[in-house]
């Protein structure tokens, strides 16, 4: 499953960041996933449940934010949201567009516990 490798990468990066901050555990991992990726939320969550035990993110929540595709028209510079296969400019009907958003696959932020930190909600 494609998502296993993706979640492995997400976990590795999140753990590395957490360790650099001397975190004791990861509470939440927020990721941004573009709708133009082939990634399925359910599969991501499944992979996260399968791979997080034994890492700092054991028991953590994976929060997935979907990003709708957005493009800029090459003819008139209008920016617009669209679906997977219908990137046509609503202003001029042009279909030569530059994709601005929609292929994201990135960690947005992670919520961590620091040693002796009683209020993890507040920034250290
Ligand atoms: Zn246009």
Provide a descriptive summary of the structure in words.
With 124 residues, the protein is of the alpha+beta class. It has a domain at 2-68 and 102-113: hypothetical protein PF0899 fold (2-Layer Sandwich). Helix content is 24%, strand content 31%. The chain has helices spanning 2-20, 41-51; strands at residues 25-34, 61-67, 70-73, 79-81, 97-101, 105-113. A three-stranded mixed beta sheet has the order 2-1-6, with helices on one face. Strands 4-3-5 form a three-stranded antiparallel beta sheet, with no helix packed on it. Strand 1 (25-34), helix 2 and strand 2 (61-67) form a beta-alpha-beta unit. Helix 1 crosses helix 2. It starts with a helix and ends in an 11-residue tail after the last strand. Zinc ion binds at residues 73, 75-76, 78, 89, 91-92, 94. Zinc ion binds next to loops.
């Amino acid at each position: 499953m494609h998502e296993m490798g993706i979640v492995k990468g997400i976990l590795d990066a999140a753990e590395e960041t957490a360790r650099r901050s001397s975190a004791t555990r990861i509470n939440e991992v927020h990721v941004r996933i573009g709708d133009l990726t082939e990634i399925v939320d359910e599969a991501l969550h499944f992979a996260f449940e399968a791979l997080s035990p034994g890492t700092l993110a054991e028991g953590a929540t994976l929060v997935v934010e979907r990003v709708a595709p957005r493009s800029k028209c090459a003819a008139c510079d209008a920016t617009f949201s669209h679906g997977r296969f219908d990137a046509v400019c609503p202003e001029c009907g042009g279909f030569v567009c530059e994709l601005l958003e929609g292929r994201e696959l990135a960690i947005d932020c992670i919520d961590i516990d620091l040693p002796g930190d009683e209020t993890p909600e507040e920034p250290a």
